Prior knowledge:
The chain has 105 residues and is of the alpha+beta class.
Amino acid sequence: MTKERLQFHTIDLSRKKLQERFAHISPLFQKEKNLKDVKIDHRWANLRLDLLNDLYHMLIQKPAEDMLNPRTEFIIVPDDVLHYFPFEILVTKLGRDEVHYLIEE
């Protein structure tokens, strides 16, 4: 949404598939945990940066690429399972020696 236009995009991804993607990103995002899971904290989050980058492209960059501008405010209004996801950890750039997160943009 800008002053000039309002845009909606539908992403071809079911709720179940999205939850599966979250579970692959880190054990922290698994819908169901079991007693054999290790105690998880920030040191054991096991974040899959490549999958966070893929999710960024799918949810943010691809649908809103022409509206993204580092000089303007970007607001995310999540719904359903996305409401619990920390968008700031999405990886916007993943290189051999560098990682950039959405929160840094």
